[in-house]
Design brief:
With about 450 residues, the protein is an alpha/beta fold. It folds into three domains: about 90 residues, NAD(P)-binding Rossmann-like Domain (Rossmann fold), CATH 3.40.50; about 210 residues, 3-Layer(aba) Sandwich (UDP-N-acetylmuramoyl-L-alanine:D-glutamate ligase); about 140 residues, Mur ligase, C-terminal domain (Protein-Tyrosine Phosphatase, Chain A), CATH 3.90.190. About 35% of the residues lie in helices and about 20% in strands. The chain contains 15 helices and 20 strands. Helix 1 packs across helix 6. The chain is globular. The model has no long low-confidence stretch (mean pLDDT about 95).
């Protein structure tokens, strides 16, 4: 960890705990800052806060008292999930107190260069593939951080200059960066998302674009050349641009030609050798290849990863084949586009399980992708909206209470050869704490179904 002096004896407020807040508070304390932590969860139910108190860090729990900001803080580190229109954040900005997220601190203390990955979809899969490719080239040369793995600052604290940090970054995190500068930035794609957090689409796109704002001509930007919006944005970057495309033979960057994965006119390997299914994963693979080749990974090492990588949990994850049905868990599909991508990846008839938090979408965009859907099972706040689209498509629609109730219905609606797919097209927060909890509930329900039928 770089021993920076800029926070020594500064008054710092860490707003919101979870893993990133705990890490930021601990590191700031080590750097000599006077740290106060504020979290909504009551102290008695907050083991993280209790642990920080034992370190000598001031802890205030149970609410976010607005008057706390009158105590002369010189910096606020906020949990990424707290929006900028939160009264505490709004007041801090009005008082001209700098507000950052924990990834900014991670960059400031890191001795390791950062490969930062953002985008609407594919972030986790792309980050994981890059991580595996770098480690295939040199063992322990990549550390996972950000939304995946451990908090960015905790990883940065222990990373060395001989390693890379493969860091997944959300728009929430990138909105709060000032000096953050990855050596390689990756933008997988940009679609409409998180409009409940951002004021409008423009703010969302600009948050993603922050990933490259401090890059120089010594750095690289790997970007989706199939999206005109992203292509046009590259005119504003100082970084060296490396394009990737699933539809164009570029001659530079990464692309597909005659069934082969290519990079700068060089054949990397056959697309048919890749284990990971789905057209949407091709974007993730091409972005990963661009990073790997830029950092000196060999074609053999790249293909070894692509021939063995089965995917990331909750992301079009194959669960089991039972009684001729293949069950897939795509709980990470928290927006319409992700579900469209999942449906495009299957040729067999699909029994689709969908629904969740209502963010105001109409779901009409799913209609063209329902041609392979034979039965639709809906739940959650958006059940009626998604069900309406299913009925327009002429699909039989079943309404159930939750994911657990959907699984036995899906089995009854299916037959051998069918795909049973959980791909909700919605966030989980109306019924489940996280998409992981929802995905695990789905997989547990499958296990219970098998046990019940085979009794």
């Amino acid at each position: 960890m770089k021993k920076i002096e800029m926070y020594h004896h500064k008054k710092v407020l860490v707003l919101g705990l979870a893993r990133s807040g705990v890490s930021a508070a601990t590191i700031m304390h080590k750097l000599g800052a006077f740290v106060t932590v504020n979290d909504q969860k009551p102290f008695s139910e907050n083991p993280e806060a209790q642990g920080l108190l034992e370190q000598g860090i001031k802890v205030i729990c149970g609410s976010h008292p607005i008057e706390l900001l009158d105590e002369g803080f010189e910096l606020v580190i906020k949990n990424p999930g707290i929006p900028y229109n939160n009264p505490m954040i709004a007041k801090a900005l009005k008082l001209k107190i700098p507000v950052i997220t924990e990834v900014e601190l991670a960059y400031q203390i890191s001795e390791a260069p950062i490969v930062g990955i953002t985008g609407t979809n594919g972030k986790t899969t792309t980050t994981t593939i890059i991580h595996h490719m770098l480690n295939a080239h040199k063992e322990n040369s990549s550390l996972l951080a950000g939304n995946i793995g451990f908090p960015a600052s905790a990883v940065a604290e222990n990373a060395t200059s001989e390693q890379y940090i493969s860091m997944e970054l959300s728009s929430f995190q990138l909105m709060g960066v000032e000096t953050f500068k990855p050596h390689i930035s990756v933008i997988t794609n940009i679609y409409e998302a998180h409009l409940d957090y951002h004021t409008d689409r423009s703010e969302y796109v600009q948050a993603k674009w922050h990933i490259q704002k401090n890059q120089t001509a010594d750095d690289f930007l790997v970007i989706n050349w199939d999206q005109e919006e992203l292509k046009n944005l590259t005119k504003q970057t100082k970084a060296q641009v490396i394009p990737f495309s699933t539809t164009q033979r570029l001659g530079q960057g990464s692309y597909v030609q005659n069934g082969d994965i290519m990079f700068d006119d060089e054949v990397i390997g056959s697309r048919d050798s890749i284990l990971l299914p789905g057209e949407h994963n091709l974007e993730n693979i091409l972005a990963s290849v661009a990073v790997a080749k830029t950092l000196g990974v060999t074609n053999e090492e790249i293909m070894h990863v692509l021939e063995t990588f089965k995917g990331v949990e909750h992301r079009t994850q194959f669960v089991v084949e039972w009684q001729g049905r293949k069950f897939y868990n795509d709980s990470k599909a928290t927006n319409i586009l992700a579900t469209q991508s999942a449906l495009k990846g299957f040729k067999n008839p699909v029994v689709l399980l969908a629904g969740g938090l209502d963010r105001g979408n109409s779901f009409d965009e799913l209609l063209p992708f329902f041609k392979n859907v034979k039965s639709l099972i809906v739940f959650g706040e958006t059940a009626d909206k998604i069900g309406r689209v299913g009925k327009i498509a002429g699909i039989e629609v079943q309404y159930v209470d939750n994911v657990e109730a959907a699984v036995p219905v899906a089995y009854r609606e299916s037959e051998p050869g069918d795909i049973i797919l959980l791909s909700p097209a919605c966030a989980s927060w109306d019924q489940y704490r996280t998409f992981e909890v929802r995905g695990n509930a789905y997989m547990d329900a499958i296990s219970e179904l098998i046990e019940e039928v085979e009794k």
